[in-house]
Amino acid sequence: MSTPLRPSRLCRLRFYPQAWSAALLILLALTGGLALADSGGVHQESAVTPDFGMMVRYVFWALIAVTGVAVAALLWSWLLGRRVAQRTRQLQRELSERRQVELALRESETRFRDVTEAASDWIWEMDENLRFTYLSERFYALTGIPPQHVLGRARWELATADSPAGREKWRKHQELLEDHRPFRDFVYQTGIGDRRGAGRYLKVSGKPTYDEQGQFRGYRGTGTDITEQVKAETALQESELRLRQIIDLVPHMIFAKDRYGHFLLANQATAQAFGLTVAQLVHRSHRIVHGVDEEAERMMADDLEVIESGASKFIAEETFTDHAGRVQTMQTIKIPFIAPGLSETAVLGVSINITEQKRAKEEVARMRLYLKNIIDSMPSVLIGVDPWGYITVLNQPAEQVSGLSWEAAQGRFFGDVFPQLEGQFEQVRQAIRLGQPIKTPRMTLEVQSELHYADVMVYPLMADGASGAVIRMDDVTGRVRIESMMVQTEKMLSVGGLAAGMAHEINNPLGAILQGSQNIQRRIAYDMPQNRAVAAAIGIDLERLNRYLEQRGIRHFLEGIREAGVRAAKIVADMLSFSRRSESHFGPVDLEEMLETVLRLAASDYDLKKKYDFKRIQINRDYDPTLRLAYCDKTEIEQVILNLLKNAAQAMTDEGTPAPAITLRTRCEPDSLLIEVIDNGPGMDEKTLKRIFEPFFTTKDVGAGTGLGLSVSYFIVTEQHHGRLSVISKPGQGARFSIRLPLRREALS
Fold first, then answer.
1. How far, in Å, CA of 118 to CA of 139, rounded?
2. CA distances, 599 to each of 594, 602, 611, 639 (Å)
3. Which CATH architecture has domain 585-749?
């Protein structure tokens, strides 16, 4: 800040008028005294010398002159002080105004800077050559793009425009800038990466600037980062596309209509039913697509009922005439909903074609009497019950098992007549409630102190307004015993190869043990010059064995001996665990641990090593980290996977696959867990695929296989675990075996 002006010492005399007056009186008194003295001297001229009178006059006039000069100087000083004081006041006023202007300017700059930094946009400027000259601090904070990568460059030098539409957009933008016209909301993607190396989407607006002479000086404007908005819009579009694809994949009719009967939405199944495309159907009235007016009126009435009531409506059966004039029976549910972009309620419908189901139902009714005559000839035990479990029908095998006639058993609770089936009452109720059959495989029964097996199937029965169920019981004891023998036979065949492989694998760790022992003996022998040299180099005798062993790395060999022993023990344990015969035991199993155990077993198979060492096959693991436990019979599933691995390895060996690889993959699906064994072997043709799970079918040479491995595996997965075993393969494209097991424990009960 500038220093305020201060008046001089002389100027400050103006503030003392009393002193000025006193000085003036003194001068007057001196003047008067001198005048008197001069007059007295005249009268006494005779007594005083003439020279003294002359001196007195000189002094008098000198005093007068000095007084005049002093008065003039005082007057000038007063006038000068007054002028200086006026100028000082003027400068102080100007200085105060200047300070106020500077303060207002600083406040304006601070306010502009605060607003700029707090805003969601940034400020940019271009020169007359349309190159960036200024970017506010918010640019880097919002985009992550360093300003030095932008300054001095034109906007189109920073963007990407690969498509013809993009290049046309930039051409129009450049023409607008060259014409010095303002623009708003121009969107482009930068080719310059942010902190993460990704391009950003920017939206800019600007207006031209001119100097005082009206010459174009460039552009000034604002910019906004809309990357996240663009990503969100793109994701929304992709989500809508995926939803559209999913809806079109549904085989049932899915549609939406407004209260005036215009289609707002329709999937492919709906459009095909009307003989149109989706684009042709949407926004058209339903009266156009219906060939029968009564159908159109009835469906319109149902739509309005749902819209007005706000409640869903289930239509068990309704007729619909398709584009070919065929009458179809549909089962439809209609739900009220607010369509996007509409303020009023619309209706969403899903229709399932139940024409075949209805025809089947009618056929069942027509065949009821005929079936009544033949049920007695069926070998299965058939028991008809009502929803409360009371017997309504018995066939002859059921009469033989119970020892009661139909008439005697009718009206009695089936659990009293068949005590072995008493636990099936809940399945009966569930089958009736769901309208679906429920199967209980291999239920154990004690007949004359002997264990038997039976498959029990509960079928819901609804006819003539009455509901109930039919319980079918089939004795499968013989089949179970044969299948058990087949499983055990296949297992023992595997065990034979595993036993030879185990002996081979044990030789490797035993060789390591022998080699390690030999090395220990050699490294402590006194007659070896190298041992003596090393002992002498470290300054000890051979009796100082601990240090010598440390220096020669003998402990490393001891650790190798231990690891070889552990490996041999693990191989033997896995083999014995697999070969041990036991009854089916379901429980939680660590899926990854089970797969790794099977891989170790496969690597130990001697039959494989005779042709191709399994360890030379590349094993790819693609495990689902969220899927750890599986509820299954561990031994049986191990057998299935081992069989698939052996088949894949043998196929790739026989065909000489150059880079054999097997992939083990696990995934969690909505209702099941998936285990896949995928190889890059020769694959299979369609004829082989159709028979791959047949018993005794094999493509191997005579004596190389029994043809039971895959059939037994199929039985284990489908019958024992209620799962699915499938295969996908083409010649030259490998094979993919998929095992799907139920996730829920109750599905296996």
1. 12
2. 9, 5, 18, 11
3. 2-Layer Sandwich (3.30)
Query: Coil, strand, or helix at residue 383?
Result: strand
- The average pLDDT across 330-351 equals 83
- 314 DSSP β-pair partners: 333
Contact between 330 and 253 (Cβ < 8 Å): yes
Q: Which fold has domain 367-474?
A: Beta-Lactamase (3.30.450)
d(CA 180, CA 170) in angstroms, rounded, equals: 15
Domain locations in the chain as residue ranges = 11-86, 122-232, 250-359, 367-474, 476-581, 585-749
Task: List Cβ neighbours of 618 (8 Å cut-off, separation of 6 or more).
Answer: 659, 660, 661, 662
pLDDT at residue 378, as a whole number:
77
DSSP 4: P
Sequence-separated contacts (24+) of 136-139 with Cβ below 8 Å = 139/223
> Which pLDDT tens digit goes with each residue over 526-555?
667 777 777 777 776 665 665 566 666 665
User: Is a pLDDT exceeding 70 seen at residue 80?
Assistant: yes
Query: Between these two residues, 246 and 32, which has the higher pLDDT value?
Result: 246
Please give the Cα distance from 533 to 547 (Å, whole number). Answer: 14
Q: Give residue for tokens 């494989």.
A: 608
* Separation of alpha carbons 168 and 318, rounded Å: 55
What's the rounded Cα separation, in Å, for the pair 604 and 497?
9
pLDDT band, residue 9 (cuts 50/70/90): very low
> How far is residue 612's CA from residue 659's CA, in Å, rounded to a whole number?
12
Nearest to 270 by CA among 254, 290, 294: 254
Residues 380 and 374: beta-carbon distance below 8 Å: no
- The residues pairing with 385 across neighbouring beta strands, listed in sequence order, are 391, 469
DSSP characters over 208-219? EEE-TT--EEEE
Exposure on the CB side of residue 409, measured as CA atoms within 13 A: 25
Q: Is 218 left (phi over 0), alpha (psi -120 to 50) or beta?
A: left
Same fold, 250-359 and 585-749: no
User: CB-based contacts of 21: which residues, under 8 Å, 6+ apart?
Assistant: none
Q: pLDDT, tens digit, for every residue of 130-162? A: 999 998 888 888 788 888 888 888 888 888 766
Q: How far apart are CA 173 and CA 161, in angstroms?
A: 12
Q: How far apart are CA 193 and CA 195, in angstroms?
A: 7
For residue range 592-620, list pLDDT tens digits in order: 988 988 888 777 665 555 565 677 788 89
Residue with tokens 């200086």: 84
Percent of the chain whose predicted confidence (pLDDT) is above 90? 8
Tell me the chain's radius of gyration from C-alpha atoms.
54
CA dist 618 and 661 (Å) reads 4
- Look up tokens 């087949």; give the residue: 486
> How many angstroms separate the CA atoms of 221 and 184, rounded?
9
- Please, which residues bridge with residue 320 across strands? 328
Neighbours of 271 (CB within 10 A): 21
CB 645 within 8 A of CB 596: no
Specify the CATH class of 250-359 in words. alpha beta
The domain made up of 122-232 is a member of CATH 3.30.70.100: no
Amino acid at position 187, single letter: V
Are 226 and 243 within 8 A, CB to CB?
Answer: no
